[in-house]
TrEMBL record, chains A, B:
<comment type="similarity">
    <text>Belongs to the HMG-CoA lyase family.</text>
</comment>
<dbReference type="InterPro" id="IPR043594">
    <property type="entry name" value="HMGL"/>
</dbReference>
<feature type="domain" description="Pyruvate carboxyltransferase">
    <location>
        <begin position="5"/>
        <end position="269"/>
    </location>
</feature>
<dbReference type="GO" id="GO:0004419">
    <property type="term" value="F:hydroxymethylglutaryl-CoA lyase activity"/>
</dbReference>
<dbReference type="InterPro" id="IPR013785">
    <property type="entry name" value="Aldolase_TIM"/>
</dbReference>
<keyword id="KW-0479">Metal-binding</keyword>
<dbReference type="GO" id="GO:0046872">
    <property type="term" value="F:metal ion binding"/>
</dbReference>
<dbReference type="GO" id="GO:0006552">
    <property type="term" value="P:L-leucine catabolic process"/>
</dbReference>
<dbReference type="InterPro" id="IPR000891">
    <property type="entry name" value="PYR_CT"/>
</dbReference>
<keyword id="KW-0456">Lyase</keyword>
<dbReference type="GO" id="GO:0046951">
    <property type="term" value="P:ketone body biosynthetic process"/>
</dbReference>
<dbReference type="Pfam" id="PF00682">
    <property type="entry name" value="HMGL-like"/>
</dbReference>
<protein>
    <submittedName>
        <fullName>Hydroxymethylglutaryl-CoA lyase</fullName>
    </submittedName>
</protein>
């Protein structure tokens, strides 16, 4: 039952992307370097998108050029199109992460084109990359669309199949706005593993039911997760919905259960505790505030007195 | 696999107890009355403790006298001693909830006496009550003490056994500061149900790993939970640790999985959304902010234009 679990830290891409104030390139590089020392399998560093579309990540080349790469850690990047893929490969990304939605409405809202157009564009990227760099595809809204509602599991599997047929290395199944429940997660994970046993399968959850969905996925045999330090991130199409799952909370939970996450948790907590100063506000993650469950607290002085009085 | 799940709402006792500003008696009565309409199995209304020890709950008699009792809802109260039990029975409480810790240090810190003294005092309460009102015992720190660390499961079961031998109706097994992990929860729940099949067994979790511990307990067959509206509450001996699980978040998760919680979720969310105004600050619960997963959001206007453009 104890498994090796692989975490992909997405805070500097998915987390930072919705922050209102530009975060300095130096701070991004330092944060990625600190995270590289924590034992992550993968770090999604940035996005090679248009600087106009996402000004926060306009320094993608500089960040990729300045980070210190630690052997054993994969540095992945988001890539929206062919131009982004070329820039990412020039920056020696270890993996290209492509994204589209399984919901037509969400794809139109987020990527401003129908799903078929997105698929054709991403298929062209995969063809041009031609295996020089491994490709992962992140499918959004797989557990429900905040505008359309239910997204049938069969539809998710059909989109996943089309990308599997193109030879991608991995698929990330995203609960983009936190609509999944653990029973649905279990059904999805079982279906995915039956059908795509040869692929890296990663689950991406949001915080609304956080730990429970991670638990349901691990119980179903899933071993790869996205997480965002401090729980940063969110989706503009589901106002009020909470952000990504907090990496440190999920990792601590799985480690407490005896799973091997590969992560140096005290070191990770140090990094997590520096995050509010970087983004300029409190973050939702619980563990950085509470400390790990193994960290004990002093008893109040009265306890010693009472112990003596009653002994 | 679909189960009837029973929730005990503890916000007006456990949640309010650590609030710094006195909450008016009128507001307490109105909140209990609103919660009574939501479908809870039980509401822990207040505590018959000394007004000096917990000034927030000095209005216990008045609150119990003024609430409108809804048939099918049990109104339970915390009782620290014989005097509290007498006051509670005069106030026609449906259940007396007694409490002690399974950790010696936590019992000394919290109740200012050794566990054996607490047990003797509570045993005397149970004897005097003599079955006139059902008794529940809440055992604190069953998944770890923030000062001592591990509390062996065998020790928890031994304390539970001593109260079961005295004829209590139910036991609440509390993760007082949020130290439990889901694997530990599964082991504990299986042992409890084997040994105390005839008792009402309730699990009380804190928010650190929230939904995942509830899920693990339900998977193990547990059907009774404490929850605190908005996630209010906490424990002063674990600084930084998060409060109780949010009732509405846990209930929504279980309902989404198909379990029957008996709760009118839209009505509960209305009550939850009024809570910040009552306590004068934001509360941690996620669902009141995000809305239920069935509540959809309008697509941005651009989607209709894009749909037309691509059709």
């Amino acid at each position: 039952m104890k498994q090796r679990i692989f975490f992909n830290e997405v805070v500097t891409r998915d987390g930072f992307q919705i922050e209102p104030e530009f975060i300095a390139t130096d701070a991004k590089v330092q944060l990625v370097d600190a995270l590289s020392q924590c034992g992550y399998a993968k770090i999604e560093v940035t996005s090679f998108t248009s600087p106009k579309a996402i000004p926060m990540l306009r320094d993608a080349e500089e960040v990729m050029g300045r980070i210190t790469r630690v052997p054993g850690v994969e540095y992945t990047v988001l890539v929206p199109n062919l131009r982004g893929a070329e820039r990412a490969m020039e920056s020696r990304a270890d993996e290209l992460n492509l994204v589209m939605s399984t919901s037509e409405t969400h794809n139109l809202a987020n990527l401003r084109m129908p799903r078929e157009k997105s698929f054709a564009a991403l298929a062209e990227v995969i063809r041009v990359v031609g295996g020089r760099t491994p490709v992962n595809v992140s499918l959004s809204t797989c557990f429900g669309c905040p505008m359309e509602g239910e997204v049938p599991q069969a539809e998710v599997l059909a989109w996943a199949q089309r990308f599997a047929d193109l030879g991608v290395r991995g698929l990330t199944i995203c609960d983009t706005t936190g609509m999944a429940d653990p029973a649905q997660v279990a059904r999805m994970c079982e279906a995915l593993q039956q059908r795509f046993a040869g692929l890296q399968l990663t689950l991406h959850f949001h915080n609304t039911r956080d730990g429970a969905n991670v638990l349901a996925a691990v119980q179903s045999g899933i071993t790869r997760f996205d997480g965002s330090l401090g729980g940063l991130g969110g989706c503009p199409y589901a106002p009020g919905a909470s952000g990504n799952i907090s990496s440190e909370d999920a990792i601590h939970m799985l480690a407490s259960m005896g799973h091997d996450t590969g992560i140096d948790i005290p070191r990770l907590l140090q990094v997590a505790r520096a995050l509010p100063a970087i983004v300029g506000h409190e973050v939702p993650g619980q563990l950085a505030k509470a400390g790990p469950s193994t960290q004990l607290h002093p008893a109040p002085a009265s306890v010693a007195e009472l112990r003596a009085a009653f002994s």
